[in-house]
Amino acid sequence: xxAHDHTPAVAAAIxxxxxxLDPAVRRDPVxxxxxxxxxxxxxxxxxxxxxxxxxxxxxxxxxxxDAPRSAPPTASRMRGVQLADDVVHLTFDTERDGHWTxxxxxxxxxxxxxxxxxxxxxxxxxxxxxx
Length: 131
Description:
- By secondary structure, the chain is of the alpha+beta class.
- It has a single domain, classed as Nuclear Transport Factor 2, Chain: A (Roll).
- It has four helices and six strands.
């Protein structure tokens, strides 16, 4: 496999990753949690460690509170590689309200389809904005 696979597995993971950024999904705890593996965990851009329940509660509450005031996060430079038959690794950047984050996600194929198993966000400043 190459550094930038274009397999059906990578396409499925990308489609689901983008669904996680959809404001309608972010406001609905059932839709949001349905995309997370039961053993999901994340190291967020804040440094906090999240599990499935805490991430679902935080994201859906924040999305409901922010709905009228804030634009949804936008993704760029999304790339994927299929590491095994049932594992895909995605990397991409997001921007929301001037805050940029490098993102890394590990997706696992289960009997319920591709589910987000691990995610990490690291804040950064784009080179064009550095002084």
